[in-house]
Known about the structure:
Number of strands: 3
CATH class: Alpha Beta
Radius of gyration: 11 Å
Order of helices and strands: HEEHE
Strand content: 25-35%
CATH superfamily: Fe-S cluster assembly (FSCA)
CATH topology: GMP Synthetase, Chain A, domain 3
Helix content: 40-55%
Structural class: alpha+beta
Strand order of the largest sheet: 1-2-3
Amino acid sequence: MEQEIEKTLEEIRPMLALHAGNVRFVKFEEGVVWVEMLGTCQGCPLSQLTLKAGIEDLLKAKVKGVEHVEAV
């Protein structure tokens, strides 16, 4: 499961890097993927949109068992 999550996050990282941002996988627990937003993504007013409409949607579509994504 963790390998699938990391593989999917690798697809997202180039888009985040365009804005000097990144995301780090922290853990997967009971359907929840915990990530840390890095770089300019930390504190960005659009980081919640990136988290939910970008990262969460892609992970839910590609990794069976992912119910939602939360930031630490």
